[in-house]
Every structure is written in structure tokens, then in C-alpha cells.
Amino acid sequence: MRLYIANKNYSSWSLRGWLCAKLSGAPFEEVLEPFKSTGSNPKFLDFSPSGLVPCLHDGDNVVWDSLAIAEYLAERHAHMWPRDPGARAFARSIVCEMHSGFRDLRSDMTMCIKERVDVRPWSEALAANIRRVESLWTHARERYGQHGPYLFSEFTIADCFYAPVAFRFQTYGVPPAGTAGEYLRSVLAHPLVREWEASALAETAVVDADEPRLVYKDKLKAYGRL
Questions:
Q1: CA within 20 to 30 Å of 126's CA: 25, 54, 77, 170, which one?
Q2: DSSP SS3 for 144
Q3: Distance of CA 104 to CAs 34, 38, 112, 160, 216, Å?
Q4: What is the distance between the alpha carbons of residues 76 and 100, in angstroms, rounded to a whole number?
């Protein structure tokens, strides 16, 4: 298999696909095609029908969406979703919610693993997204996470999909309390998440379209943080 991804410092969707590929245990070649300074790269169309990353090539099969990649791999590696049917249904629900929702979190807190920046005051929509994440983490951990440190005890696709949120919380100083805070620390400490983070910190490329101090320049300047 070959997995095409973009900059590890910035690409949250690449992180999801890469974590799922790693979680599967199947060998794969990692191919990094960086973003342009303004964001997407036209070269992505050379390997991805959507022009987006991540994109998985497995022989004649091409899978070009992170959730599709997760399901493609899970069909072949049964351990990637929780074993219990109820837990698996909940895990799929929160993964799909992350895949299709949380737009204010994405737009108001771009992923930039290297950065530490304060973008408060948060909009009410962003604050609502944050509360929703904390609620999901707490619910999953308290109901299904009694036997391990992750959302469903063992590390699963659900953790792969929320790891970029954990990086965002770290970057922007979001401090979940209680069970959600414990989970945040656990997922950031996972060996695969730390492996990705180390590679992200070693990157030197700067993507202006995803740099918080450029994206939120006016707000940071207004509050004396720039």
C-alpha cells in the first residue's frame, strides 16, 4: 500500500489517514506531497481523484477520503473498531460527527502542531464545538473506556479521528477538565501520535494559509498578542 499525505504540521486529515494505516498494522509506503503556501497543491490530482489528501493506493484500489480509508482498512483488520456492538455503534457515530461537523473548530483553530497561541475570546459557536468534543470524550471514556486510557479503552479509529483535535487543544490552550482532560493527555502521549508530532516539529516548510499568527493576525493584534 501507498499512503499520500501532506505536511504533518498542518494536515489534520492526513494525520487521521496515517494513524488508521498505522493502527491497521499493514505495511505501507508513506509519500509526503507538501501543501503550497496558499494551501492545496495541484499535484494532489496526480494521485487523488478529489485533489485532496490523504489518499490510499492499494494495488488497483484507490481510496481518497479519510473515513473511506478507515473503513477500507477496518474491513481487512478487525481490531480497528471496538469489538462490542454498542461501543462500535457509538464509535462510528462520533467519528462520522467529526468527519462532517465541527466547522467552527476547524475554521477558528487551524491545526499547527508547532504553534502555541491564544485566540480568545472564542465565538459562541467555537465554544459550543469545544463543549461538544469534551462531552463526547467524557461520555465515551465513562461508558466504554474503563479498561484502558482511550475513548473505547483500546486505541481505535475513534482516537485516530480525534487526535487532530487534541493537537488543536494543545496549540490553542484549551484545557478540558476531568475525564476529558485525562483523555487529552493520554491521546497526546500515544506512541503513534508522538511519532507524528516529532516529524511535524522537524518540518521547516511554512504554509501561510494555516499559520495561526497569519490567519488570526487581526484578532491577535487587537488583543495585543502579536
A1: 54
A2: helix
A3: 25, 20, 16, 20, 14
A4: 24
Residue with cell 475554521: 107
Query: Which of 4, 25, 13, 3 has the alpha carbon at shortest distance from 163?
Result: 13
User: Which class would CATH give 2-78?
Assistant: alpha beta
Q: Which of 173, 198, 75 is nearest to 116 (CA)?
A: 173
Among residues 89, 92, 100, 106, the alpha carbon closest in space to that of 165 is found at 106
Q: Which of 66, 67, 47, 65 is nearest to 57 (CA)?
A: 47
With H, G, I as helix, E, B as strand and everything else as coil, classify residue 109: coil
CA 131 to chain centre: 17
What distance in Å separates the CA atoms of residue 77 and residue 23, rounded to the nearest whole number? 9
pTM score of the predicted model:
0.97
Q: How many CB atoms lie within 10 A of CB 89?
A: 11
CATH number of 79-202: 1.20.1050.10
- Type of residue found at 177: A
